[in-house]
Amino acid sequence: MSVRLTQSNDGGNVYFITFTCYRWKPLFVLTNAYDAAYKWFDYLSGKNASIIGYVIMPNHLHLLVHLPPTLKSPNTVVANAKRFLSYEIIRRLEAGGAEPLLQELHAAVKMREARKGKIHRVFEESFDCKACYSAKFIAQKLTYMHHNPVKGKWNLVADYALYPHSSAGFYHGTGANVYQNLVRVECVGG
């Protein structure tokens, strides 16, 4: 994944955003932190962002979102998300007594970050953020993320539209998605 240099959000854009847990560790599933991601989605919706699609995998998250011009750059939005989600994931790891994992996440913090008060590394520093300027590109990204739970090593469900932590059920009428505050785009097939 790549870090995108600061992108402005002058006119309000649709973005495809991906960020990953540290060393691809399955922290979302280990801490059952899916609800924390939905809480972040609600926060964005409260700021007039539109959640178009998502998938929360065991170790990474994909989001297709329209950010209104009133929100700062996607970089700030992702930084705030990572901070919020990190606190919740660490709290749950501590409550679950996951000391070896907590020690590993603590050891991953760089000296410069520790000086700023960071205690654990929950997510990779980098993230991916692509502005989506066409209906075709939006449809391509939705299809890609919706199929993520059944591709490669995952096999989390037999039918991608039944994965509960994805907007695929919303678009395919299965009702399998947990998060209900979605904005439908009509350019979508898969």
Model description:
By secondary structure, the protein is of the alpha+beta class. It has one domain (13-172): Transposase IS200-like (Alpha-Beta Plaits, 2-Layer Sandwich), CATH 3.30.70.1290. 37% of the residues lie in helices and 18% in strands. The protein contains 7 helices and 4 strands, in the order βααββαααβαα. It has helices at 27-30, 34-46, 74-95, 99-107, 111-115, 135-147, 168-172; strands spanning 13-21, 50-56, 60-67, 123-132. A 4-stranded antiparallel beta sheet has the order 2-3-1-4, with helices on both faces. Residues 1-7 have low confidence and may be disordered.
Q: Architecture in CATH?
A: 2-Layer Sandwich
Distance between the termini: 23 Å
Biggest beta-sheet profile? 4 strands, antiparallel
As for the CATH topology, it is Alpha-Beta Plaits
Strand segment tally: 4
CATH class (first level) name: Alpha Beta
From the alpha carbons, calculate the radius of gyration and give it in angstroms: 16 Å
| H/I helix tally | 7
What average pLDDT do the residues reach?
90
Tally of separate domains: 1
The CATH superfamily is known as Transposase IS200-like
The succession of helices and strands, N to C, reads EHHEEHHHEHH
Q: Portion of residues in helices?
A: 25-40%
Adjacency order of strands in the biggest sheet:
2-3-1-4
Q: Give the overall form.
A: globular
Low-confidence stretches: 1-7
Structural class comes to alpha+beta
